[in-house]
Amino acid sequence: MQGIQKHYVSQEGYDEIKKDLEYRKIDLRKEISDRIKIAKDFGDLSENAAYTEAREAQNDNEAKIRELEDIILTVEVVKADKGINKIQIGSKFVVELNGKENTYYLVGSTEADPATFKISNESPLGMVFLGKKAGDEAEFKGPSGTIMKFKIKKIL
Q1: CATH architecture of 7-77
Q2: 147 near 128, Cβ under 8 Å?
Q3: Which tens digit of pLDDT belongs to each residue from 26-55?
């Protein structure tokens, strides 16, 4: 039997998960329930697209609620230790690539969002940064074979 997978999140990520769960359980459930009631008034449910769509939305919402509840049961809130000058989960850090600087945030997989430079500790790029210090270089080979050399400028 496999162990339970831990979900590592920042305090900010944990707060967002709780907020999303509360919204889905209270507001979205009621909204979908109201849509189902209205759609039932249209008559024959077998050919009622509004009813079918509302039931699908209900199923999707309930699945997401179960997923969020499972995450909360296995979550570990991490806070980057300011005394350690190494990149770890919860660290914000500045890197230079090809003369351009970007600020990254190393997070758990549940809050990863590459578009906002929040990278998962489990991703290939995130693993390259783990344990690095300011002044270190991190080399990453992308899926196409392109090699990127990052210079860690500072850890915030």
Answers
A1: Orthogonal Bundle (1.10)
A2: no
A3: 999 999 999 999 988 887 777 788 999 999
Question: Is residue 121 within 8 Å of 8, Cβ to Cβ?
Answer: yes
User: Which residues have CB under 8 Å from 41's CB, separation 6+?
Assistant: none
Domain map (residue ranges) of the chain = 7-77, 92-155
Q: Which of 148, 137, 138, 153 is nearest to 103 (CA)?
A: 153
The CATH class, in words, for 92-155 is: alpha beta
Contact 94, 101 (CB under 8 A): yes
Looking at every residue in the chain, the average pLDDT score rounds to 91
Nearest Cα residue to 95 out of 144, 141, 136 = 136
pTM, two decimals, is 0.73
Cα–Cα dist 122/124, whole Å = 7
Distance CA 125, CA 132 (A): 12
The residue type at 156: L
Q: What are phi and psi of 58, to 5 degrees?
A: -65, -45
Residue 55 identity (one-letter amino acid): R
